[in-house]
Specification:
Helix 2 packs antiparallel against helix 3 and helix 3 packs across helix 4. A hairpin with a 2-residue loop joins strand 1 and strand 2. 49% of the residues lie in helices and 4% in strands.
Amino acid sequence: MWRGEEIVFGEGLSDWAILSAVEQAAKQIGIERFGAHDLRRTCAKLCRRSGGDLEQIKFLLGHSSIQSTERYLGSEQDIAVAVNDSLGL
């Protein structure tokens, strides 16, 4: 859905322009249904994969609890490589 009158907003692209570009690119690689929520989840997962703190991602997503963010990201505790193993205590 391209809304020509909303393409430029201030100094940057509008949310509709970005969504439209992503939808078109997704269709080009064979993904027919790709929406704004997919972008939100992808952003959150990329933040987490690059070492983003779960609490900060919670704030980014506007979740009220860490448990919501964990479910949203599909996070699971990795017992084999626990986060506290590298503390050196």
